[in-house]
Specification:
globular; alpha+beta; about 40% helix; GIY-YIG endonuclease
Length: about 80
């Protein structure tokens, strides 16, 4: 099982990624070992995650979400 996740960084920006373990990946980001983008914007908070059937499906969804505007991404916030 793969997931696409959205994080809100401490500076209010939105980060999107794909993983097979959301909780572990968010913890990795918050420990400063995630993507370079999030390292300088800690802490991050999980906005939403989407379950995908495969890694391929997750990467395609991640790409589509990354094309959205910030305002559109914020609409996923619960």
């Amino acid at each position: 099982m793969w997931f696409v996740y959205l994080l809100e960084c401490s500076d209010g920006t939105i980060y999107c990624g794909a993983t097979n373990n959301v909780q572990k990946r968010v913890a990795t980001h918050n420990a400063g070992y995630g993507a370079a983008y999030t390292r300088g914007r800690l802490p991050v908070e999980l906005i939403r995650s989407f379950e995908c059937a495969s890694k391929s499906e997750a990467l395609k969804l991640e790409y589509k979400i990354k094309q959205l505007s910030r305002e559109a991404k914020l609409k996923f916030k619960r």
